[in-house]
Amino acid sequence: MNGPGLVSLAWRNLWRQKRRTILTLISIAFGGFLAVMMTAMQDRSFADFIDNAARFGAGHVTIQHPEYRDRPTLTRSVTDADAVREEAEADRYVVKVVDRTSGQAMLATAKDSFGAFFIAYDPALETEDTMEFTQGLVAGKLFESADDKGIILGHVLAKNLGAELGDKVVYTLTDRSGEIVSGMQRLTGIVNTGSVSTDAALMLLPIGTVRDVIGYEPNETTQVAVFLEDGRNAPGVAMRLGKQVGDDKTVLTWDELQPEIKAFVAMKIGGGRVFEIVIGVLVAAGIFNTIFMSVLERTREFGIMLAIGYSPRQVFSMVMWESVFLAGLGLLGAIAVTALPYWYMHGTGIDLTEVYAQQGGVDIGGVGMDPILRIGIYPENALIIALAIVGATILAGVYPAWRAGRVDPVESINLV
Known about the structure:
Layout: H1 4-14, H2 18-56, E1 61-64, H3 81-89, E2 94-108, E3 113-121, E4 137-140, E5 151-154, H4 155-161, E6 168-174, E7 180-191, H5 196-199, E8 202-206, H6 207-214, E9 223-228, H7 234-244, E10 250-253, H8 254-257, H9 259-297, H10 299-307, H11 312-347, E11 350-351, H12 353-358, E12 363-364, E13 367-368, E14 372-373, H13 379-396, H14 398-405, H15 409-413
Parallel strand pairs: 3-8, 5-7
Antiparallel strand pairs: 1-9, 1-10, 2-3, 2-6, 2-9, 4-7, 5-8, 6-7, 11-14, 12-13
Helix pairs in contact: 1-11, 2-9, 2-11, 2-13, 9-13, 9-14, 11-13, 11-14
């Protein structure tokens, strides 16, 4: 018997022990469910986290003065921001490019004074996908133009300064020549980013107003922030832009500017991979046990098949076809049990706002965590899981199938 005959025989053999087959399929489906949900949770949470890091920082890719990273002073600037933006926007992976001016400042009110980190931006260029700070406005209003008046503070910093909306706030910083200069604005907005450390030191200003104070030209800034649709493309984009912008600028990726976040993501991804491997080994062991026990119970049957003319290769093929059927049905089962939970978690998710609020906000490296837990798996990871399910199931049947083909007909027929 060859071809379709062995296939149909393998299919019938699979259902001779329905309970065992169904339990095996359940274990495969459950293993696939766990692998998909864990991977999807990891993919989405870290993709969102990296995007948040880009919005809290200076983009997925940052273009700045070569010495600004080591000595972030306003004397080290990018003087042709418009031309740099045009070059960056030409890359196919880039979705938005903005220029910002940032640095250290000292704030003072009638009640107290504190150090702060300021970011000056152009409201006409920024969107909710490029600046996370503006999404947490809890009082007042945002800037409407680059030359607007006012100042926006993190809610912890405003509390420490004893400042309320409308109060005067004096900020002192060094200009592009290294001289100490001051500016005064009234508090027009208060934000809550979800990161206590950030809210205790954040000051937002309109970029045009800051340029006037520190003596920058209209086309001058400290950083050009480049935002991508997929943060995983950052190294390639940075490499291409590095060849275009010239030696008077450097191009850095988000993980180079925020190494603590890179280390956290790498650690969590590594832990997730180990967990997935453990799940895979356990599922494969269960499949192997099922197929191997099935072979042991049918030793006499294999002996008779070999005695009446079946070759060891045909017996091997028949058992392998049983593994293939288990793999296919198990994969379909995994898709079936995963579809609805995945759809819900991808679209709606779990709201952890109250939990985060009780903890005073959750942040890592100054980057606030999204309080809505959602999932989303990269297509290549979904394909890897599907191939792993099929591959593990088929491989688990190789030894039992080989054992079945090696049965001695005379000895096996005499077994009771």
